[in-house]
Amino acid sequence: MFSRKTVGIRRENAIAELKSILVGGVEQWLLIRGEDQSLPVLLFLHGGPGTSQIGIIADYQKELEKHFIVVNWDQRGAGLSYSKKIPQESMKVDRLLEDTFEVTNYLREEFQQDKIYLIGHSWGTILGLWAIHRHPEWYHHYIGVSQVISVQKTEELSYQLVLEKAKEQEHQKAITQLNEMGKPPWSNMKNDRIHQKYLESFRGGISHDGKLIYTLIKKMLKSKEYSLFDIFRFVKGQFFSMNNLIDEMRRIDLSETIQSVEVPITLMMGRHDLTTPPEAAREWFDSLQAKNKTWLWFENSAHSPLFEENQRFVDIISKL
Question: Tens digit of pLDDT for each residue in 210-229?
């Protein structure tokens, strides 16, 4: 409860490390696990920004550790990588992208592999897509889970769809509150909380069944990788990251800069996702020039297919 570690893997050439490295002048943490150090490297880019994975991921990646060296990175300002000493002016999208490149090259050098596999979830898909666009030579395959292309368009569509759900279900309180706050962007965090509440009410939020958030909280409380103090750090990091990045994020529209990719790309989208509605990415995907692109629906998921339908997610990744 008061210390952090990761459980060892009983294999002759396995690796199980929870370690910090210096990235962009800031101490940042990696969880590195695999049953054999000769396996290909798979790097996760978590969502949020600020929703780090090291403290919740253990039970969801055990099967992947048989096929990959699985790396979870708590990004600058998130989870174990949060510190009040981090300069707010360093919390910029370009800086986090450079951090992504530094972590990538650390892994390429550490495991003597020219290319690695890259997975992004939600906010992490912005970093992931930009990464393969800038440096396709460093990546085998890119997997985008709940892909974001334009933050502003995604937020506007999310609001519109939630309001439509409220009208369909004749939820008068939701209709009134949503109409009063108007469409995003919002400068008042109260409006974001109201929107999130109805995302969950209409089963299009973090998960379709509405239970995942409680499951993840329990996993974090039992986590070996996060101490009790690290859980407080996780919460602080969420607010710190979101507050410092949200305005810049809302100006991002990847459709303006990325019309083609050289790396094989697979998008995994939850059929019920109202947080990052798949329609917001579909038009871009259909026009994307790529030799190898795949769109996969997760029929029983909302915003978190990697957790909600974990076995299918793992099966697909393991066969790439």
Answer: 999 999 999 999 999 999 99
Eight-class DSSP state of 148: -
Active site residue 133: no
DSSP-derived 3-state class of residue 259: coil
Contact (CB, 8 A) for 50 and 78:
yes
Using an 8 Å Cβ cutoff, are 241 and 78 in contact? Answer: yes
Q: What is the distance between the terminal CA atoms of the chain, rounded to a whole angstrom?
A: 37
- Is 192 annotated in the active site? no
- Which of 122, 150, 207, 241 is catalytic? The answer is 122
Q: Residue 50 half-sphere exposure, CB side, CA atoms within 13 Å?
A: 21
Per-residue burial over 5-41, b = 16 or more CB atoms within 10 Å of its CB, e = otherwise: ebeebeeeebbbebeeeebeebebbbbbbbbbbebbb
pTM of the shown model: 0.96
Catalytic residue among 121, 141, 272, 303: 303
pLDDT digits (tens, 9 = 90+) for 240-265: 999 999 999 999 999 999 999 999 99
Q: Return d(Cα 315, Cα 58) in angstroms, integer.
A: 17
Residue 116 bridge partners (DSSP): 139
Quote the pLDDT of residue 2: 65
Separation of alpha carbons 217 and 205, rounded Å: 16
Q: What angle do helix axes 228-249 and 93-110 make, rounded to 10 degrees?
A: 120
- Catalytic residue (one of 208, 273, 301, 304): 273
**CA-closest candidate to residue 276, choices 50, 124, 169:** 124
Calculate the dihedral angle through the C-alpha atoms of 37, 39, 41, 47, rounding to the nearest 10 degrees: -100
User: Which DSSP string do the residues of 73-109 spell out, in sequence order?
Assistant: EE-TTSGGG--TTS-GGG--HHHHHHHHHHHHHHHHH
Is residue 273 part of the annotated active site? The answer reads yes
**Residues β-bridged to residue 287:** none
